[in-house]
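Record format v2
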Amino acid sequence: MATVELIGIRKAFGPSVALEDFSLSINSGELVCLLGPSGCGKTTALRILAGFERPDGGSVEVDGRDLADDPPEKRQFGMVFQDYSLFPNMTARQNIDFGLKVQKRPAAERATIIERMIEVTGLQEQVDKYPHQMSGGQKQRVALARAIATSPKVLLLDEPLSALDAKVRETLRDEIRRLQLEIGVTTVFVTHDQHEALAIADRVGVMSNGRLEQLAPPQELYENPANEFVASFIGTVNKLPAVGTDDGRWQVLGRSVPASVTSSAGEANTAAVRPEQIALDPVPGGPAHVVSVSFLGPMTRVILQDDELGRVVADIISADATGLVPGQDVRARLRDDVSEAVLIGPR
Amino acid sequence: MDELLSAGSRRWRPTGVVKWAFLICVGLFFLVPMLAMARFAFQAVPMALLTPDKFFTGWSVSGLGAALTDPDILTAAKNSLMLVVLAIILNLVLLVPLSIITEVRNPALRPYLTALTLLPWVIPPIALVVGVSATFRATVPWFLASIFSLVPFYALWAMPFTYRALDAGLQAINARTLYEAARSMGASLGTIIFKVLLPNMRASMVAAAALTAAMVLGEFVFASLLLKKTLPTEMVIYQRSDPRGGLGLALLVMILTALAIGLVVRTLRKRGLNVQTTGM
């Protein structure tokens, strides 16, 4: 287990700046997801950490030691790639054994570790198969076993699930988390899939344009996004007007609620309101009308067109949404259990 | 949506008949001259009388038999086979490390290397021979006098094919990611090359070797300009005295080369190596 620090990293590829003043601190045994849209710099950050790219500025430290002069082969990191990158000429067992052989571990120890890896990744049936004889999910399991077999200080995962179908992705995602907790390795997981990040990370770092916008536990990220980008990127959000009241609170969707910032009367701001924080009251001649109603199992998604607010998305408990039909007039309000508004910037 | 679908269905796609028609046309383009060559070489009928109605008349392989026992032809064949082996070795020794290092360490150089390896075909053989001969004559005249002086020329001449086959092989196995995966596990460059990359490049190396072999077995200009006795130059000389036997021999060499390459490719595919991805 190791602590990882990226301090003020800058990296440019020609005129294009991939990372600008990027700092990230990861605790020992923690799983941090770097999440962001394509081209935001998350893979570059991972490759700098792995040693495959040299930063133009800043430093990378593991357990307080600067890794500037350490090439990838000296860093003792494990890495899993998006396209598996298993060695095609080796069986699953030989792939797992590769790093152990490089480390010159005794044969008996290697055999024990391989058996353990096979067991924890459930690869008993695939152990003597070559990569071309395995499915995508099986290949990625082998890649994972290979990466952790050498007991790396840090495990780096570069979009390891994006080439897999939805069901396998979900299963393997949970397996990665289980394994990570079991061996307690400090892990950096790069993904563009917010569900993946929110499901397995201790903390999620949301990135945009080479900068870290917010680093926080999933729930905090969802409930208290630091800015408009994070609010929009994580889940669905309605950006609604918040108007300051005399008592320092904010008027949002017809209710007066406090926020982290005290308002002055008449001050205009924007509140990030999640669809599940909205309730709908059928009101003939109301300010909004229902555009569509989509059943999603326990919840029903209702899209409204409001005269003042424009398009509003509301997720209603399905049992309460049975009477809603497209064209119906309604009024949207903040649910009674919402105790605080999340402000994301002035309007 | 319906409009899109109908637009899609209106797009022309070759039918099975059209595909077969193209295939047959291409097949005839190759087979007709070879058939004419075979009739001239193996039918003991005067050329003016080689009409379709005499297709089954006077077939004989005696001319080819005589050619195959000619001592000069046998010496030339041995020389050519030796040149094939040496040209393949030199080519692979030069280009395998170069293409690997370029791909995994400095991919930005790839376009330049691609252009550079085309240069042997930009320079006319006569210019190449005159230039290289002058250099060798002044420095190592014994080398120029020996049959081995053809090896560098052949390696150079086959470079465009060889490099492309190797490069395609590296791309097909995603060599850069394999390299990075192995490095992250602590492997040195030597270990990566010998344990990871080379075993996965067997198919492309065989493709490169097969292309070099086919090229060397058919090369005439360099050997002729340097006055060397190789199979192509000797076949030309033999044809002057026995045109039918010489042509029969040329046809045999062509078929045997194709069969040998086909056999190697088939064996590799049976072992699960995809030779097709390397341009073969």
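Chain A has a mean pLDDT of 92.
Chain A is about 25% helix and 35% strand.
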